[in-house]
Amino acid sequence: MNQSLTKPVNVLLAGYSYLRSSLLGTPGISGMPLSIGAELTNNCNLLCPECSAGSGMMLRERGFMDLDLFGKIIDELRPYLYNINLYFQGEPMLHPQFFSFLSNCTGLHTIVSTNGHFLSEENAEKTVKSGLSKLIISLDGIDQDTYSSYRVKGSIDKVLAGIQNITAAKKKYKSSLKIEIQFLVNKLNEFQIPQVKHFAKMVRASLKLKSMQIIHKENILSWLPGKRKFSRYHLKNGEYVLKNSLPNRCARLWFNPVITWDGKVIPCCFDKDAEYVMGDLKTDSFIDIWNGPKYQIFRKSILSGRHMIVICRNCTSGIKGVSH
After folding, report:
1. Cα separation of 116 and 53, whole Å?
2. C-beta atoms surrounding 134 within 10 Å
3. In what helix (H) or strand (E) does residue 178 lie, and over which residues does it extend?
4. Is 305's pLDDT higher than 80?
């Protein structure tokens, strides 16, 4: 096939197979994913209490993705991909070879999400010159007390300086890098939304007000924002539950898998602890895993009873008005 047609033809194949599977309730797969998430590391420098990595709840081994493994992934999937997210759990800029991963993504729309603690002047310039398409920087408060109520061990001064460094480097090199400030709305910081909107405008960044996942249900009232539109939960029969009705379909299973630092292919970004491993890229090719029996069985379970799957119970995909 003409290489210029590979990606658009793949979109048609993947889209058709998803729509057909959703309508018939029978899993079928054609084509390859349009986007992937690659976890460079599940280590983090912060101790965010409602994060699987930061809270210490994560059971899987900690580590850093091997650059050769990443090369294998890119070599196989590059012809089909439109986008790659170089993050999942952990802080990607902790990887000692972080900028080598960016170099391997040339020609792909590449996104990194960071807590902003490693954006020194030197790193900011390297980031801007790397070809990265979008940088998401978490900023969950405008003063230290508010910020560190969730970003435990974090420094608001370091993050604000990092944002200034990246915006200065972008201006210096006339870069098209998109900068997004991400604000995780909760009970303790929602009063600062007007301030963070003003800050984002000042640094010429877009702003995303993101709903907060709460994994410790006993603490839900401590974090739940007052404005319902910022919450992914509502009260039902005396219990806070996800707003999502969890229909028996999920596009992620046809378009957007995640690969952990050690090469495990998992269904989506809600499988924080890699409980549903579809295959291992250290031993198998991606296409064999993507079309393999484990994936087909899992797709079938989504189409027949998504509400029964543990990782789906905190999924916000499809909830109107809730950013996730």
Report:
1. 17
2. 16
3. strand 178-184
4. yes
Residues 6+ apart with CB under 8 A from 72: 281
**What span, in angstroms and rounded, lies between the C-alpha atoms of 15 and 321?**
24
Inter-residue contact 212 to 172 (CB < 8 Å): no
What's the token pair of residue 77?
């999937």
| pLDDT, position 228 | 87
Strands 178-184 and 206-210, by their bridges, are parallel
83-85 vs 35-38, strand pairing mode? parallel
pLDDT band at 324 (very low <50, low <70, confident <90, very high): very low
How many helices (H) does the chain have, and how many strands (E)? 12, 11
Return d(Cα 324, Cα 318) in angstroms, integer.
10
pLDDT beyond 80 at 1: no
Please provide the average confidence, as pLDDT, over all residues in the chain: 93
37 beta partners: 85, 258
> What's the CA gap between 277 and 294, in Å, rounded?
8
* The pLDDT of residue 314: 80
Both structure tokens of 121: 């002047």
d(C-alpha 74, C-alpha 3), whole Å: 16
0.90 cut: is pTM over it?
yes
Could you identify the residue written with the tokens 């007052």?
A: 226
